């Protein structure tokens, strides 16, 4: 049996192409039923996200024919997708295993180390399982992939550092405050990035949020989302002493808060630390505020510098993660090859048993002429003596089969034991389905 994977992702195709190949969640079950037909494709799953579409298959055919079957299905389903071969990648056998491991471990993601892809892979696998489209090989591969992803997450720091501007704000806040528990956040402006930063801060433990916006209705709406309070924009300075963390994100072309505003607030705060994040362009916060004692001001460039440094660290961790993937790949391939020996061993045992039975029947009449055997003796001959002889004869052959399987020498197995490749393929298909 062969692994085959055909797909495209953010590395190989723009969004305009990816969306042509996407499978909607509603249509996915029907597509899977058509994809895994039990003949060309005996096991399969489909992963479809905004950044990738991949069809993973187990096929009884040789690799090139298996790839052709998957491509044929993909183009039949998406009838307007001819001429996009340049965007597709095709993997077979152990290259499939490596790719699946890397995807699950978020080593092939647009944002290196992001955790969402693992959940998406698990969901795609669960869908295929629910429709009975997986079997021994695919189950083994996916369970190992989830194990690899966990190991990468546990043994490396690939997901430890923020690589989004909004989450970098949380990382910086943690450097200033011993804990974010009980801290108050003030959001001045209600842009998407500011809201996202506030979301991360509240998730990290901040207890209260104050929202000021030139649109008071929007301020109320956003404050309600966080169970906070809204304030009229022109009066946000009056609430500055309450804020431990301030996020400025307005469209104003000038500073909206100055040194005197913050200095007065710090007096009322008794100089407890204040963290100010200015993600506006042009800047909303007078940079000289940073000269005040216990006030820490960061702008977009500062946040981006944190992101770039963290990204470099993630890339270094990715090198360690890739080494783990290769280690797991070698172990999986060895197990997979040993599984491949099963049909050959079964075929050999069946053949030897058939020969033994034939020879026994051929000599039975002569035994009867010599006086025959009692039913008990005949049963002993059949069940003990013949079985013992067969096992001793088969043992070195089975060891040879296993050695050949471990080396991936399928053609040698067929030649050594006189097994037709087509017959053997059918044996494998039957064996895999009964396993």
Task: Supply the key terms.
435 residues; alpha/beta; four-stranded antiparallel β-sheet; elongated; disordered C terminus; Shikm_DH/Glu-tRNA_Rdtase; oxidoreductase; porphyrin biosynthesis
Short account of what is shown:
Homodimer. The chain is an alpha/beta fold. Helix content is 56%, strand content 13%.
Radius of gyration: 33 Å
Secondary structure tally: strands: 10
Compressed to H and E, one letter per element, the order equals EHHEEHEHHHHEHEHEEHEEHHHH
Outline: elongated
Largest sheet: 6 strands, parallel
Count of DSSP H/I helices = 14
Explain this structure to me?
The protein is α/β, with parallel strands linked by helices. It has 14 helices and 10 strands. α7 packs across α11 and α11 crosses α14. The longest helix is centred in the C-terminal third of the chain and has 70 residues. This is Glutamyl-tRNA reductase. Pfam families: GlutR_dimer (PF00745), GlutR_N (PF05201), Shikimate_DH (PF01488). Its EC number is 1.2.1.70. Pathway: Porphyrin-containing compound metabolism; protoporphyrin-IX biosynthesis; 5-aminolevulinate from L-glutamyl-tRNA(Glu): step 1/2.
């Amino acid at each position: 049996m062969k692994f085959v994977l055909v797909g495209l992702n953010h590395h190989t195709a723009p969004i305009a192409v990816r969306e042509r190949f996407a499978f909607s969640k509603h249509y996915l079950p029907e597509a899977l039923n058509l994809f895994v037909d039990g003949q060309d494709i005996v096991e399969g799953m489909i992963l479809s996200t905004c950044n990738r579409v991949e069809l993973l298959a187990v096929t009884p055919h040789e690799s090139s024919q298996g790839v052709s079957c998957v491509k044929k299905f993909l183009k039949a389903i998406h009838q307007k997708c001819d001429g996009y071969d340049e965007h597709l990648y095709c993997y077979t056998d152990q290259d499939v295993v490596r790719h699946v491991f890397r995807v699950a471990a978020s080593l092939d993601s647009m944002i290196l180390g992001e955790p969402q892809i693992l959940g998406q892979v698990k969901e795609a696998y669960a869908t295929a399982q629910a429709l009975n489209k997986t079997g021994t090989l695919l189950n083994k591969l996916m369970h190992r992939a989830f194990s690899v992803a966990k190991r990468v997450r546990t043994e490396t720091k690939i997901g430890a550092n923020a690589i989004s501007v909004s989450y970098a704000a949380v990382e910086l806040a943690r450097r200033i405050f011993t804990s974010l528990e009980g801290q108050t956040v003030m959001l001045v402006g209600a842009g998407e990035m500011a809201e996202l930063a506030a979301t991360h801060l509240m998730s990290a433990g901040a207890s209260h949020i104050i929202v000021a916006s030139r649109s008071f209705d929007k301020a109320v709406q956003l404050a309600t989302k966080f169970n906070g309070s809204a304030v009229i924009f022109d009066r946000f300075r009056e609430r500055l002493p309450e804020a431990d963390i301030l996020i400025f994100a307005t469209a104003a072309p000038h500073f909206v808060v100055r040194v005197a505003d913050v200095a007065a607030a710090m007096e009322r705060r008794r100089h407890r630390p204040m963290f100010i994040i200015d993600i506006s362009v042009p800047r909303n916060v007078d940079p000289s505020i940073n000269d005040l004692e216990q006030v820490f001001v960061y702008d977009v460039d500062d946040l981006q510098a944190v992101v770039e440094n963290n990204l470099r660290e993630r890339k270094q961790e990715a090198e360690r993660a890739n080494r783990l993937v290769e280690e797991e790949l070698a172990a999986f391939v060895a197990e997979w090859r040993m599984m491949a020996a099963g049909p050959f061993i079964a075929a050999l045992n069946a053949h030897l048993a058939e020969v033994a039975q034939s020879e026994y029947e051929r000599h039975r009449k002569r035994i009867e002429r010599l006086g025959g055997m009692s039913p008990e003796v005949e049963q002993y001959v059949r069940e003990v003596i013949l079985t013992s002889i067969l096992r001793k004869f088969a043992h070195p052959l089975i060891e040879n089969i296993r050695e050949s399987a471990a080396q991936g020498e399928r053609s040698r197995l067929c030649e050594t034991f006189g097994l037709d490749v087509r017959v053997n393929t059918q044996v494998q298909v039957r064996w895999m389905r009964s396993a």
